[in-house]
Each structure stands twice: as C-alpha cells, then as structure tokens.
Amino acid sequence: MSVAESVSTMVAGRRSTAQQARAENRTLTKLTIGPSPWVRAAALAALVVMAVLWLLPLAWGAVTSFKHEAEAALPASWWPAQGWTLDAYRQVLGNSELLGWMWNSLVVALLVTALTVLISAMAAFAFSQTVFKGRGLLQFLTVASIMMPGQILIVPLFKQMQAMGLVDTFAGIVLPQVVAPVMVFILKRFFDAIPTELLDAARIDGAGTWRLFWTIVLPLSRSILVAVAIFVFIGAWNNFLWPFIVTTDPQFMTLPVGLSTVKNAYGVQYAQNMASAMIAALPLLVVFMLFQRRIVQGVATTGMGGQ
Description:
Layout (H helix, E strand, L loop, with lengths): L2 H31 L3 H29 L3 H4 L14 H7 L2 H34 L5 H12 L7 H10 L6 H5 L6 H12 L3 H9 L4 H12 L1 H17 L2 H6 L8 H5 L3 E2 L2 E2 L1 H21 L1 H11 L5
Helix pairs in contact: 2-15, 4-15, 5-9, 5-12, 6-9, 12-16
C-alpha cells in the first residue's frame, strides 16, 4: 500500500469515527431530551439563558477591572464613562505580594492535590479490594462524614494545628485539606468495577497488595485519577476559609486570602480587587483549557457536578 493510500485510509477512518460520534450524540440527545425539535429548542434556550446568567457577574468583574478607581466605586454601570484603563492591573502587578500569594497558592494546591489523590486512592483500594476487620464500620464513617459540614470542624482543627505548632505554616494549611471522603467514595466505586479476574490472576502470579495497587489498579484508573486531581486542585486553589483562619503572616497567605487584604487608606479598591480576581482566575482558566475534556468526563462519570 502506498503512502497516499495509507493517508486516505487514515482520513476515512477518522471521518467515520467522527460521524459515529455525532450519531451517538444525536441519539443520546433524543433519549435525554426527547425527539421533538421544539423540546430540544426549548432546552437549548434554557441552557443559553442559564449560561448568560452565570457569565454576567464574570463579565461585570472584567469590565470593572478596566475602570478608573473612582468610577468603579460608583453604582454599577457597564460602559466606563471615563474610558478604559489598565491602572488597576498596573497597581496590582506592581504589588510584589501578589506574586508571593500566587506562588503560595500554587504550592498549597499542588501539595493538597498530590496528597489527596494518593491518600484517597489508597483508602478506596482498601475498601474495595481488601478484607480486614472493621472495614464496614470505617466505610460507614467515611460515607457519613460526607454529610458533615466542614465548617463545624474549623475550631477543633485549629486547636489541633495550634497544639502541633503548625499555625502559619504550609503544613497547617495543607494537612487538614487532604482528607476528602467524597473522593474516597468516588474512587471506591471506580475500583469496584475493575474485573476481579485480573486481580486474582495477578495474585496467583505472586503479586502482593502493594504491587496490585501500584502496577495494576492505578494504571487502569488513570482517567478517574486525573478527573479527581483536577477537581481537588481547583478546590484547593479557591479555598478561602481554612487558609484565612490558620494564617496571619502575609508570608504564608494564599491568593484568595491575600486578595481580601487589598485595601489602602481610602478603603476597598474595587477596580484593583477585580483586576486581582481576573489574574487569580488565569491559572484555573489554563487548567480548564488544557483539561476541558477530562473535566467534562469527570463531571459526567463521577457525579461531582452537584457538589
């Protein structure tokens, strides 16, 4: 077969795959919404309205960040009467503390993500593929802890960090965030679907528990691990309450906490706050653009869209 024939065969195969995907999407849409075009049009219109309502605050914040500070404090107006300006961004980027806060947020988010995924995967594997005394009770407590609001643990967690000398440290910010019962439950459901025949065959070949976990279960679970990691990273990056409580030293402040201190002698600077928020959202925008498909698949397959 010539090179041209190979290329044409490859192109035809990709077109066929794309057509099959479109056909499956149309079938799924009909099964979900209904065969009527009027119903589909109404559903599409509702989605557009909800998307616009969701984007309006973001658009208003972006517009405010390009206003003069005096005009930004006035009642909301979409079009800047005094013209567009980058003064807020110059002031924010000229603040050396902002880069430090972003670095702190990146370090905390990466540590929380790595530790949460590792601990949650280990716990989920233990619940799913091993048998030990007290497993049922621990699993019940893990599921029950999902229904417990995190705010009621703030005081005991702070007392614990204070007793351990971890206040105003990265360890004090990170450690309480690595316990994620929701992620344990999601990973356990995924591990339950792994064929037991595969694991039994590995055990017959002499594989121990750790080898099963590291060489078989984790490689097979790469998609769900990536989805969980993305959601954990976003949550850790945006977390405000716990870092705000456990840190008083600006050296350890994360970006959401640091942005709440952007004031001067004239009070809150709305344009600078909005500019800081836009800059803070850039890393998450990059993450979304790079892992958009993984995020959508994660919401669809793990059921985390209702959190």
